[in-house]
Write a structure and sequence with these properties.
Residues 190-260 are annotated as: Small ATPAse domain (RuvB-S). Residues 263-361 are annotated as: Head domain (RuvB-H). Residues 59-192 form the AAA+ ATPase domain. The protein is α/β, with parallel strands linked by helices and 361 residues long. The protein has three domains: 31-185, Rossmann fold (3-Layer(aba) Sandwich); 191-258, Orthogonal Bundle (Helicase, Ruva Protein, domain 3); 268-354, Arc Repressor Mutant, subunit A. The chain has 16 helices and nine strands. The strands form three sheets. A five-stranded parallel beta sheet has the order 2-3-6-1-7, covered by helices on one side. Strands 4-5 form a two-stranded antiparallel sheet. A two-stranded antiparallel sheet has the order 8-9. Strand 8 (316-319) and strand 9 form a beta hairpin. Helix 5 (99-107) packs parallel to helix 6 and helix 9 runs parallel beside helix 11. The longest helix is centred in the middle third of the chain and has 18 residues, at 225-242. The model is unreliable at 345-361 (pLDDT under 50).
């Protein structure tokens, strides 16, 4: 399972979306490509694809959008439909467990319609194989009957555009991946881009925020617009209750301190993992299960929820013998790094390469 799929939605800095997020995102989503912030390369390439399709008067090639959740894949699918002035049908891979489920959806599409298939890598294999023919030949074979008497009835489909979204492009089989004419990989946002997202969302939510306040929220948002919007709503609540409703840097910092989100975007679980690794195990190496017991969490929770961001931030490293903290982790928690701690100034050169197999506990 992907770390993104297992991320609990009740984490303030989790990338998964709950019902409240989805409702707010619907109101905050940009409607056109020119309004979409960030993802410059993907926007430029996608704009060319759509403009060329409009000039030809034909449906554009199928589009695959990959990358972590919360970066705008669903938003881009809706923008594609809006730019083509076409209706959009939305479903997801887990909802399509049988080929008949997919056949029912495909047979009801209209010409030029956009079909958005979220989490496409989680679709069942029989439905996946049916999708091959639908994407390439705009045709599906519907099986009627069972056993020797079963017959395949070909069903012609109107030209449509499939927009697939996945957090794990590597799980897509090559035959499916190769049928997409355009593939866009969504990258994490830079803080300056997230500041623009925060300012835009604040205007739509009728929240007064100054540049320093937006920068404070953006810097703690883990490079993800969904998290930035969620933090903005929580800071807005604090500003309205404890202040005059105006968000500046000080108010934003105070509010996020209440919600235990620090200046690098780490929450309680992230800091608990680092704190145990540093204080209890001297920076490691330590086995995953031992570390999980120390923080009172399941090993899967530590590995799939906390570790990906800590590794991306350069605060934790995985080695064959276990997890080790980096110099940045000691500095972030304000602790003095022992000279011979992993990654320390007194560490033996090539120490990580010499570490043996990871202990089982």
């Amino acid at each position: 399972m992907s770390p993104y799929e297992s991320d609990p939605v009740d984490r303030l800095v989790g990338a998964a979306a709950d019902d409240a997020d989805q409702a707010v995102e619907a109101a905050l989503r940009p409607k056109l490509l020119d309004e979409f912030i960030g993802q410059e390369r993907v926007r430029e390439q996608l704009s060319l694809v759509l403009r060329a399709a409009r000039k030809r008067g034909a449906a554009p090639d199928h589009v695959l959008l990959s990358g972590p959740p919360g970066l705008g894949k669903t938003t881009l699918s809706m923008i594609i439909a809006a730019e083509l002035n076409a209706p959009i049908r939305i479903t997801s891979g887990p909802a399509i467990q049988h080929a008949g489920d997919l056949a029912a959806i495909l047979s009801s599409l209209t010409e030029g319609e956009v079909l958005f298939l979220d989490e496409i890598h989680r679709m069942s294999r029989p439905a996946e194989e049916m999708l091959y023919m639908a994407m390439e030949d705009f045709r599906v074979d519907v099986i009627v009957g069972k056993g020797p008497g079963a017959t395949a009835i070909p069903l012609e489909l109107p030209p449509f555009t499939l927009v697939g979204a996945t957090t794990r492009a590597g799980l897509l089989p090559p035959p499916l991946r190769d049928r997409f004419g355009f593939t866009g990989h969504m990258e994490f946002y830079a803080p300056t881009e997230l500041e623009k997202v925060v300012h835009r969302s604040a205007r739509l939510l009728d929240v007064e925020i100054d540049p320093a306040g937006a920068a404070e929220i953006a810097g703690r948002s883990r490079g993800t617009p969904r998290i930035a919007n969620r933090l903005l709503r929580r800071v807005r609540d604090y500003a309205q209750v404890e202040h005059d409703g105006v968000i500046d840097r000080q108010i934003a910092a105070r509010a996020l301190a209440v919600y235990e989100v620090d200046e690098r975007g780490l929450d309680r679980l992230d800091r608990a993992v680092l704190d145990a690794l540093l204080r209890l195990f001297g920076g490691g190496p330590v086995g995953l299960s031992t570390l999980a017991v120390a923080v009172g969490e399941e090993a899967e929770t530590v590995e799939e929820v906390a570790e990906p961001f800590l590794v991306r931030e350069g605060l934790l490293a995985r080695t064959p013998r276990g997890r080790i903290a980096t110099a940045a982790a000691w500095q972030h928690l304000g602790l003095a790094q022992p000279p011979h701690a992993p990654g320390g100034r007194g560490a033996v050169p090539g120490q990580q390469a010499l570490l043996g197999p990871e202990p089982s506990a």
